Amino acid sequence: MKVNGTHYRSIWFDHDLSEVRIIDQRWLPHRFEVVSLTTLDAFATAIRDMWVRGAPLIGATAAYGMAIEMARDASDAAMNHAWDKLHTTRPTAINLKWALDRCRAALLPLPVDERAGAALQLAHEIADEDVEINRNIGLNGLEIIRQIAARKPAGEPVRLLTHCNAGWPATVDWGTATSPMYHAFEEGIPIHVWVDETRPRNQGAMTSWELGSHGISHSYITDNAGGHLMQQGMVDMVITGTDRTTATGDVCNKIGTYLKALAARDNGVPFYVALPSPTIDWTVRDGVAEIPIEDRPEREVTFALGKLTDGTIGEVQVAPDGSPGGNPAFDVTPARLVTGLITERGVAEASEAGLAKMFPDLKGRAQ
């Protein structure tokens, strides 16, 4: 995607500097900053403290983190240490473990002196694969938007509702839930996107920022407005991303997604999830019982980060003095509430049979 006319990925390797560079997302949408990650500790901090966020981007970042560590020390001990350090940063998004397992499996059989080069090449491959996966998710989601548009009066936009940021900053490029939006916009289909603010981190502000930069019509709304909009017939389709999806089609995504799915079911609004195949955890069947839900710092709830009246970026306290905050970062939407899973191979039924049919080569693979 482009920022001020310049194309950026969310993470890339700067060959001139021999460094991994990222967009530091702590400051978006108010300030655009690029920083370098040069040590294993820096990669772990960037993932844990959400300099990078979104399951696909976390996986790609972990792969580059492993590559940087292999350039420093390519021993088995260093590899296992890097795996452990990066894996403990965020427990819910399965792409993190998927990428680390893929790196370790590919590197362990190699001679130590070949590992650094192979690790960096594999990180490049994982990043490039993510871009292509998301592009194809967009093309498959575009077909759903086309069908909705064909049933609407000429010129009336297809109204989409999304939650959290499943956009370009959450992936290496294109985004998952936003990819169909970009494809529809480029095709000339009129769309309007209702963007949930997504408290407490307000990732919806990032979605608004990237849609606005692309010229896509949108409105930034409170998290509690979605049900009302659905009741009023003002939502044609809900589309979200996912941080982990079970082998049976349960979907774990940013906190509040479950409530949107319930409202969508009550109002007959289709609820779709943009699902890259690395986000499927084939070892888990019951999402509510088995997926670990990250519990983040309470300060994210009791304080809010934003642009102050003097133009600086700072925190303001929104809770009373002494009030504790609870901050579960994700919830699970049961498969029965999901209309379909938009994958890079097509739209799958949210069920064990649907996923197995779409990914027969992956079914049963250990994460």
TrEMBL record:
<keyword id="KW-0486">Methionine biosynthesis</keyword>
<feature type="active site" description="Proton donor">
    <location>
        <position position="243"/>
    </location>
</feature>
<keyword id="KW-0028">Amino-acid biosynthesis</keyword>
<comment type="pathway">
    <text>Amino-acid biosynthesis; L-methionine biosynthesis via salvage pathway; L-methionine from S-methyl-5-thio-alpha-D-ribose 1-phosphate: step 1/6.</text>
</comment>
<comment type="function">
    <text>Catalyzes the interconversion of methylthioribose-1-phosphate (MTR-1-P) into methylthioribulose-1-phosphate (MTRu-1-P).</text>
</comment>
<protein>
    <recommendedName>
        <fullName>Methylthioribose-1-phosphate isomerase</fullName>
        <ecNumber>5.3.1.23</ecNumber>
    </recommendedName>
</protein>
<feature type="binding site">
    <location>
        <begin position="253"/>
        <end position="254"/>
    </location>
    <ligand>
        <name>substrate</name>
    </ligand>
</feature>
<feature type="site" description="Transition state stabilizer">
    <location>
        <position position="164"/>
    </location>
</feature>
<feature type="binding site">
    <location>
        <position position="203"/>
    </location>
    <ligand>
        <name>substrate</name>
    </ligand>
</feature>
<dbReference type="Pfam" id="PF01008">
    <property type="entry name" value="IF-2B"/>
</dbReference>
<dbReference type="InterPro" id="IPR027363">
    <property type="entry name" value="M1Pi_N"/>
</dbReference>
<feature type="binding site">
    <location>
        <begin position="53"/>
        <end position="55"/>
    </location>
    <ligand>
        <name>substrate</name>
    </ligand>
</feature>
<dbReference type="GO" id="GO:0046523">
    <property type="term" value="F:S-methyl-5-thioribose-1-phosphate isomerase activity"/>
</dbReference>
<comment type="similarity">
    <text>Belongs to the EIF-2B alpha/beta/delta subunits family. MtnA subfamily.</text>
</comment>
<dbReference type="InterPro" id="IPR005251">
    <property type="entry name" value="IF-M1Pi"/>
</dbReference>
<dbReference type="InterPro" id="IPR000649">
    <property type="entry name" value="IF-2B-related"/>
</dbReference>
<feature type="binding site">
    <location>
        <position position="90"/>
    </location>
    <ligand>
        <name>substrate</name>
    </ligand>
</feature>
<dbReference type="InterPro" id="IPR042529">
    <property type="entry name" value="IF_2B-like_C"/>
</dbReference>
<keyword id="KW-0413">Isomerase</keyword>
<dbReference type="InterPro" id="IPR037171">
    <property type="entry name" value="NagB/RpiA_transferase-like"/>
</dbReference>
<dbReference type="InterPro" id="IPR011559">
    <property type="entry name" value="Initiation_fac_2B_a/b/d"/>
</dbReference>
